[in-house]
Amino acid sequence: xxxxxxxxxxxxxxxxxxxxxxxxxxxxxxxxxxxxxxxxxxxxxxxxxxxxxxxxxxxxxxxxxxxxxxxxxxxxxxxxxxxxxxxxxxxxxxxxxxxxxxxxxxxxxxxxxxxxxxxxxxxxxxxxxxxxxxxxxxxxxxxxxxxxxxxxxxxxxxxxxxxxxxxxxxxxxxxxxxxxxxxxxxxxxxxxxxxxxxxxxxxxxxxxxxxxxxxxxxxxxxxxxxxxxxxxxxxxxxxxxxxxxxxxxxxxxxxxxxxxxxxxxxxxxxxxxxxxxxxxxxxxxxxxxxxxxxxxxxxxxxxxxxxxxxxxxxxxxxxxxxxxxxxxxxxxxxxxxxxxxxxxxxxxxxxxxxxxxxxxxxxxxxxxxxxxxxxxxxxxxxxxxxxxxxxxxxxxxxxxxxxxxxxxxxxxxxxxxxxxxxxxxxxxxxxxxxxxxxxxxxxxxxxxxxxxxxxxxxxxxxxxxxxxxxxxxxxxxxxxxxxxxxxxxxxxxxxxxxxxxxxxxxxxxxxxxxxxxxxxxxxxxxxxxxxxxxxxxxxxxxxxxxxxxxxxxxxxxxxxxxxxxxxxxxxxxxxxxxxxxxxxxxxxxxxxxxxxxxxxxxxxxxxxxxxxxxxxxxxxxxxxxxxxxxxxxxxxxxxxxxxxxxxxxxxxxxxxxxxxxxx
Amino acid sequence: xxxxxxxxxxxxxxxxxxxxxxxxxxxxxxxxxxxxxxxxxxxxxxxxxxxxxxxxxxxxxxxxxxxxxxxxxxxxxxxxxxxxxxxxxxxxxxxxxxxxxxxxxxxxxxxxxxxxxxxxxxxxxxxxxxxxxxxxxxxxxxxxxxxxxxxxxxx
Lengths: 663, 155
Prior knowledge:
Strand content of chain B: 25-35%
CATH topology of the domain at 1-161 in chain A: Four Helix Bundle (Hemerythrin (Met), subunit A)
Distance between the termini of chain B: 47 Å
Number of helices of chain B: 3
Oligomer: heterodimer
Order of helices and strands of chain B: HEHEEEEEH
Radius of gyration of chain A: 27 Å
C-alpha cells in the first residue's frame, strides 16, 4: 500500500512540475502576477510529493518488502539497518529518485528563499527548474521506476553489492547529487536571464550562494568517493582518472570557475556573457556526467546496469537542455549589456586567469574522457586514455594557477600593482621556496616536480594566512586591535582564505603521495618479517572472523618501529565473503600516522601456504581529504556572509510594511 | 584601458592558453593512449614489444598458477589464441577462471607482463570491450559470462 502511495506521489510530482513549467513562464510573458505566483506553491508541493515517494521507497527497504522489485534486487533481510536505508540509493532507480528529491529540494528552496527576487525573474527561474524536474520525472517513471512490484514476492533479497556497504559510500551519493543538481539552480538563473534578455550585478549575487552550496557539496562528495576508493578498493590509490571520476570532476572544475567569475560579475559587472555561459556549461557537464555513468557507454567500477533505453533517454534530455540553452544563449548574447573595464593586472584579471586555466583544464579532462568513446564509435578501435595523459595535460595547467592563486586576493579591483602584491606576500613566497629546498634536501628522491609542488602548496597556504594578517594589520597596530579587525572582516573574506588554505594543503598531500609513495609486493609465510618504510612488519598468520553478514579471513600483522623495536600497532587486512551474494571483498589494513599511512592488503593463499601481501606507504595522503574538508568549511563561512543574502530581508520588510499599511 | 584593448588582451591570453593546452593534449595523446587487444589481435596486428596495451579475454580454465613467490601466472584466451600472463600483485576479488579479464602491461618474449589487472564489481560482469571483441570473433559466451551488471556503485 505504502509503495503505491509513493508511486502515486511521484506521478503527482510530475504533474505539478508540468504545471510549474508552463504557468509561471507564461505569466511572466503576459505580466500576469497570479500565474507567476503559481511557481512557489507548486515548487514546494512538488518537493513534498517527491519526499513522500522517497520516504515510501525507504520504508520498503527498511521493512524489507521484497514484493518491490527494486528492494528484492538490491537488499537483503540480514543486512544491517543503516545499509538497508543507504541501499535506497545504492542502485540506479533509487539513486535517480534521490537525484529528483535533491532537484525538487533546490527548486523549493529557490521558491522559498527567493521571495526577494523580481517576480518575473523568479517565475522564469522556477519554470526552468521545473522543466528539468519534468525531464527527470519522466525518465524515472518511464525507464527506471523503483515502485514496480513482483508477484509472487520472493522469500529474500539478492543483497546490496558488499563493497557499497560502507559508511563513506553511504553518504557519498547524496553529497555528489546535491552538487550535480545544485548547479541546476545556476543553470535556471542563466536561462531565466536569457529569456528576459538582461543581466545585472544582482543576478550574480542571487546565483552565488546556490553555486557555492552546490560546489561545497560536490567537493565533499568527490572527496568522500576518493577516500572510499582509497580504503575500500584496496588498490592503494586515491584518484584513478577513471571516466566516472572525471564525470564528477568536470562539473567541479567548471563550477569552481563559475564561483569565481560570478564574483567579478557581482562586484564589477564585467564578464557577464562569460558567466552566463559558464553557468550553462557547468550544469551541462553535470548532465554529461549522468549520461556517462548511467548509459553504460563506459566500462568502469561505477557502471550501472546497462540499458540502452536509459542511455538514449538521458542523451535526449542532454540534447534538449544543453542544445536549447546554448541556442538561447547564441540568440540573446548580443542583448546583454557590456560590463566594466579593467586592466590585465587587477583582481578581475586574476580571476580571468583562474577561469581560463580552470576551463581549459576542464576541457583537457573532457577530451581525455570522451576521445576513446568517440573514436571507438567512429573507427571501432578500442583504447583507453589513462593517468599519464591526465598528468601530462592537467598538471601543467594547474601549476600557473597555483602560482597565481595567492596574488589574486592581494590585487586591487580594476587596476592592481603586481609588484606590490608580491612584496606584500614576500614572506609566504620565501616559505614556499624553503619548502622546495627542504623537500629536496630531506627526501632527495622521487620526481623533481614533487618538491616543487610541495613548495607551491606551502606558498598557497602561507599566503592565505598572510593575506588575512596583512589585511587586519597584524604587526602594524596592537594585536588586540588587529584581532578585532580580523574578526570584523566579512566572513566571505575568511571563507576565501580558508578555502584557499585547503587547496594548498591538498596540493601538499597530492605532491607527497604522488612523489614519495612506497610500494612492495611480497609472498609472506606465517611468522616471517619484512622491513618496509621504517617499520618491521611480522606476519603472524591468518585468523577467521565474523561480521553481521559476512565471514572473513584476517591476516594479522604486528607492526614494529624499525628503530626501537616497539610494537606500534597490529593491522588486520582481510578478505571478506558476504553470505547473501557470496561475493568477496578486500579490506585493507591501514595505520594513519602524522607523516602518512601504512597500508597493507592481504592477497590469496599461495601453493606453499604463503600469502601475497601488498605493502604501501602513502605519505601525507590524508592532507588531500582534510584539504577538501577545509575547502568545504571555507565555503560554509562564505555562505554565512550576510552580504550574500542582502536584499532578501529588505524586500520582505517592504512587503510587510505594505501589508501593514493596507491593514 | 579601452574596451577594444581589454578585449584584445582577453582574447589574446585565451588563445595563448588554449594553444598551449592543445599542444599538451596532442603530445599526451601520442604517448599515453593504451590500446585494447585480444590474444588474436596480437598476432594479427603485430604488436611491438615495447608498447603498453590492455589485454582482454577470458581466463583460461585451470591456467591459474599461484606459485610460491609474489607472482601469479595465468593464461588469457579468446578461445582462438592464448597469451600467458605474469602478474606481480593481488588479483581483484572477482578474478575467476573462465571469466572475463582485462590486464594492462607489456608483452615481452611472448609473455604478457601485467602491472594491473582490472577489477570489476560483479561476478557476472563482463567488461564491455571483452564481450564485444569476443562477439566479433564469433565466440559464444556461456551463461555465466553474459553482459549484465545488476547493482552497482552509487555515482
